[in-house]
Specification:
The structure is a single chain. By secondary structure, the protein is α/β, with parallel strands linked by helices. Strand 6 (248-250) and strand 7 form a beta hairpin. It has helices spanning 67-70, 79-102, 150-158, 160-165, 178-183, 194-208, 227-237, 243-247, 261-271, 274-280, 306-313, 332-335, 337-341; strands at 40-44, 47-55, 115-123, 134-139, 166-172, 248-250, 255-257, 291-295, 320-324. It folds into 2 domains: 1-11 and 290-342, no CATH class; 40-280, no CATH class. The strands form 3 sheets. Strands 1-2-3-5-4 form a 5-stranded mixed beta sheet. The chain has a two-stranded antiparallel ribbon with strand order 6-7. Strands 8-9 form a two-stranded parallel sheet. The protein contains 13 helices and 9 strands. The model has no long low-confidence stretch (mean pLDDT 76). It comes from Rhizoctonia solani. This is Alpha/beta hydrolase family protein.
Length: 342
């Protein structure tokens, strides 16, 4: 099952690329806090998962910490009272974003040091086979965490071609999700631009992803590679072409989600606009980079219907392919992990 190319012309976009704040080329002198989760564990027979941390980019285009993001909901409230507080906070977040967008409020830069946490899945021996093994890098959607892919990975790595062709796998937590959120708790601001997460990803790929697969154990605090090596890496890349266990943490009084309700609200407050902007800018992507869209088997409701979904998955015919997974809805990694891994 797949979407055929649309018959009509490509939809015109209205997004104008903006200039991003330059990244600060500096390392924090303060080491990251110790990880709360186990840093090394067995994942599959002959595969090990290790957890690592690296410094996130700065400054970031998100508000600094304020009273809203640090407020703790009192215990003992009933459901209606908790909902009323949540609604009021979401309204405040929406108002703050509108003020920033209209220029009525200046966007202050949050330059506090923050960290990103990543899981690395690696075989205990080098990959086999005739083809060159690949490095897989995974990122979660809003509201999830880096371990969300593990069921799919178990299916992928249970297949001979998966074992043979994968050198290593990295899965990252956004700065306000999962283990990253626990480490950054006091540094998270009153807004969080999801586009900032994309900059964290670029920094990891360019400055922290180890250049060669290592069968030995990497240190948990990843070392930054030199600027020259980072630039050579980007140049070279265009030439070669379970939730309860991992999604919750404990404080002094209770078990709660690592991803706080406030941070969930401030993330989803932006997600209505950002995907549209990203899609409109896809034609600017180098067409040597292939795009594969993995879609659900519904009528494309999330994308605006089947006709709209056809345009979504075919921004360019030269580098785009797509597949629909039968029986899956919006949550493909949870609803069809085996089919996704295959």
């Amino acid at each position: 099952m797949y979407y055929p190319p649309p018959e009509g012309p490509r939809l015109r976009g209205i997004t104008k690329p903006r200039t991003l704040t330059p990244l600060a080329n500096q390392q924090s002198a303060t080491p990251p806090p110790p990880l709360l989760a186990e840093s090394i564990r067995s994942f599959l027979p002959s595969w090990t998962c290790t957890t690592h941390v690296f410094q996130a980019e700065a400054p970031r285009e998100s508000m600094p910490p304020g009273p809203g993001s640090q407020t703790v909901v009192p215990s003992g409230l009933n459901g209606f009272e908790q909902q009323a507080i949540a609604d009021a906070r979401f309204e405040e977040i929406t108002k703050l974003r509108k003020y920033i967008s209209s220029g009525r409020k200046e966007l202050s830069m949050n330059d506090s040091t923050m960290w990103s946490v990543a899981d690395r899945y690696a075989p205990e021996r080098s990959c086999t086979g005739n083809s060159i093994g690949v490095t897989v890098v995974l990122f979660h959607a809003g509201g999830f965490h880096k371990e969300i892919w593990e069921t799919t990975l178990r299916y992928l790595l249970s297949m001979p071609q998966g074992q043979a062709n994968v050198d290593e796998i990295w899965s990252l937590d956004a700065a306000n999700h999962g283990d990253s959120a626990l480490i950054n708790n006091k540094s998270l601001g009153e807004t969080f631009k999801w586009s900032v997460h994309a900059r964290y990803i670029l920094k990891f790929l360019g400055n922290y992803l180890p250049d060669r697969t290592q069968n030995g154990v990497l240190q948990w605090n990843l070392e930054r590679i030199s600027n020259q090596n980072a630039w050579e890496r980007f140049e070279r890349s265009f030439k070669d072409q379970d939730y309860v266990q991992y999604g919750t943490g404990k404080d002094e009084h209770r078990v709660k989600l690592k991803y706080s309700g406030y941070q969930e609200a401030t993330t989803f407050n932006e997600l209505g606009r950002l995907p549209c902007k990203v899609w409109e800018m896809l034609p600017m992507l180098d067409q040597r980079i292939p795009l594969k869209w993995i879609m659900d088997s519904t009528n494309g409701d999330v994308s605006g219907g089947r006709e709209s979904a056809q345009h979504v998955v075919w921004p360019w015919a030269s580098n785009s392919t797509n597949i629909q997974i039968k029986g899956a809805g919006h949550m493909i990694p949870q609803e069809a992990p085996k089919e996704l891994g295959s």
